[in-house]
Every structure is written in C-alpha cells, then in structure tokens.
Amino acid sequence: MAERLLRGRLLSFRRKPAGPEDTGAFDYTEDGALLLQDGRIAARGDFAEVQAKAPEAPVTDHRPHLILPGFIDPHIHFPQLQVVASWGAELLDWLENYTFPAEAAYADPAHARAMADPFLDRLLEHGTTTAAVYCSSHACSAEALFSAAERRRMRLIAGKVMMDRNCPEGVRDTAQASYDDSEALIGRWHGRGRLGYAISPRFSVTSTAAQLAAAGALASEHPDCHRQTHISENHAEIAAVKRLFPDARDYLDTYERAGLLGPEMLLGHCLHLETREIARIAETGSRAVFCPTSNLFLGSGLFDRAGLERAGVVTAVATDIGGGTSWSMLDTLAEGYKALALRGERLHPFEAFHWATRGNAEALGLTDRIGTLDEGTEADLVVLDPFATPAMRLRMDRAETLAEELFVLQIMGGRDAVAATYVDGTVVT
Ligand code: GUN
Ligand code: ZN
Predict the structure, then answer these.
(1) Where are the domains of the chain?
(2) From atom 9 of ligand 1, which residue's Cα is the shortest distance away?
(3) If you take atom 11 of ligand 1, which residue's CA is the nearest one?
(4) pLDDT digits over 258-267, tens only?
(5) Ligand 1 mean position, distance from CA 7 (Å)
(6) Helices 209-221 and 175-189: angle between axes, nearest 10 degrees
(7) What average pLDDT does the segment 347-376 reach?
(8) Alpha carbons 189 and 186: distance in angstroms, whole number
(9) Helix 139-151 crosses helix 175-189 at what angle (to 10 degrees)?
(10) Closest ligand to the CA of 94
(11) Do the interacting molecules here have an ipTM over 0.85?
(12) What sequence ranges are listed for the domain Amidohydrolase-related (predicted)?
C-alpha cells in the first residue's frame, strides 16, 4: 500500500462562508496531518493523533505551509495556451484573429500531443489539480489531452468543441460529425479512471440550431456528462445571437430549447444576462462561471456575483486561459476581488478560498471526491507558502490572523506561493 503522512497547517471548507465572521464554515488545524493511502485521504486531524494510526508511514513535513485541497479550474481552453496575451481585440475579433488560427493547428494530432503535457504542467505548477477543459473541434485534441491526463492520474473533465458556422474551415465541423465525434469520445473516455466528458457546443454564434440540438441529444443520451458553453460575455456577441436566432426569447433560450440546461451545465461568463435568463439559470440549476482575468482583459464586463447568488444561481470561478491572462487560481481570485470591487462587493478570503476549492467542486457536482480534505476523498492537494517572496515576507510581518494571511496569498501569491502539488496522493511539483 502506498502510504504517506503529510504534516502542515490544514485548511478545508465545510460550506460556503456566510461572511468574514463565519469561521464555522471551515476546519483549520494548526499542527495537522493527512494520512494518504493509495491516492485517498485516509485520515485527517492533529498530527499526533493521525500519526498514531500509521506510525510506520513516512512523513513529509510541510510546516509552516498551508495544505489545502488542490484548486479546481472549471473553465479553460487547452488549444489557447499560446493565445494568452494577444493584443488589442475584444471577443469576436480576438476569436477570429488569434484564437481560431491557433486552434486550427490542433487538427494535427502530433501538435495536439506535443501541447498536452505542457498544458497539464501549467495547471499543476499553479496548484490546479482538476479542470473543465475545452479542446479544439478536432477529436484528436481531446484524445491527446485525455491520454496525457490519464498517464498522470489527474481528475479532468474535457470535451471537443462543437462549432459548425461563423468560423474558418480549419476549425469548423458539422452537426452530424460533431455528434459522432463527441459520442465516440464519450464512449472511449467518459468515466474511465478519473476522466469525464463535457459536451461542448462552443457558443450559439458558432453553432447552428441543428448542432445545438445534436448537443442536446448527446446530453439526454449521456445525462451524467457535463456540458459547457459560453453565454452573454459581450454585447456584440449577444447581438449576433439575436440575429442568428430571431425566434429565441433570449440568448439562454438557444440552449434551453436544445435541452442543454441543468446542474451539469457550466455557463461561462454570464455578464449581461436578462432577468428571465437569470431566473431560468437558477431554476434549472445551471452553473454560472466567473472568469475575471478574461472579462477584464477582453473588456467584456463585470460579473454580478451578488445578484446571481441572490437569485439562487450556483457560481464558480475560473481562469479562462487564453482569454484569461493567468493560469493561477490565486491570481484569478485577486482579479476577481478587483472586478467585484467595481460593483461595490468585497470578496473575503474565506469566500475566495472556498470558491476555488469546495465551491468549484460543488459547481461540478464532485464534492464527494475533490475540493475538501475530508476523509475518503481523493488526495489532490496544494501546499501554499505565504512567505514565498521578499514582498510577501514583508507583508506577512504585519499579518496577524488567518484571514489576513489568506488575503496576502490571494492578492500576492500567484504561482510563487505554490510550494507543492499532489495528484492522487503523489507529489508532482
Ligand atoms: N466565446 C466563445 N468562444 C470563446 C473563447 O474561446 N473564449 C472566450 N473568452 N469566449 C468565448
Ligand atoms: Zn472560454
């Protein structure tokens, strides 16, 4: 049996904190330990108590660092790892000028295979252990990514994008071909080891009603697959959808009519929604995914977290590489803090760290497996060092509480703060 004891300061959430005072929402153990056995968290508690259960287990001492569940990134694009930092465009021009040409290269299986490991390396070095990923429209891109994730025993959700109009031939499929390719990929990869499939119509600008219906058919045939798409990111995009679907009640209706809504649906962006759309997202349990670095970089708009949550929408927070500018969920939470501040909200570090771990796991319906340090769950972990840089050390000299320390990590930590990442019980960075 592969067994190891990790010693450090443990932080894991039980539920979403109601506010800065809600210290009952998490478990914090100052001299804590996790007993890892065969990729699972077999025991958690005070070091002495856990060590007594496995006195022979080798100990890795991460003190004084914090040990948290690995970060979860519920919206990221595999073929955009070379698109990050493309200058001067808003959404539709950015797609046409930079993104579609980059994604066209993934028609070549050798290119897709060459990029899969660098993509997963970037996730892990930033402490992200699970992601929901859009691949290119080519089945071979999803094949390459699933194969690489399987070799690393990562929990990963991914799908090939479906896009049959308003895009260049090199990335365009057809309703039938996208159905057939997605179906074959589901058969091959969904539920294999730690992998899951996400049915991925890109958005209603690049899908005909026939293709959205094909995606809906896949969703009803494979109800335990995730679904992911984009909605209401940019005003020109929304106007285009209204032109392309003159009979639809609104943008959301193009997905609703196809039978795509529900708790398995991850709706990226959700910035400029209408009242009916918000109500239907809440009623169907579909998830709204906030992508702050992307929303600011592309000048798309400001996410209304408070309004959506008041309406009963479950939210998630994600990088959206390569519209997003950082692979780090810590940087994403920093930018999220600033974007929400422009709406008069203040994202408290307890809420922020909950969001990137248990909150995103909840949005993915995976809290029984990932997102906490609960016994019996999978041992995907990130070890964070609040003293990682000289600037952080200076700031930490004046931090007295756990909340202050977490906020230093949220705002200043980025990649520097990731001291180690564990996947399936094994250290990988
Ligand atoms: N809308 C449709 N496709 C995309 C994409 O790749 N990135 C972003 N940010 N928005 C999109
Ligand atoms: Zn996206």
Answers:
(1) 3-70+373-427, 71-364
(2) 323
(3) 230
(4) 999 999 999 9
(5) 41
(6) 20
(7) 98
(8) 5
(9) 10
(10) 1
(11) yes
(12) 67-428
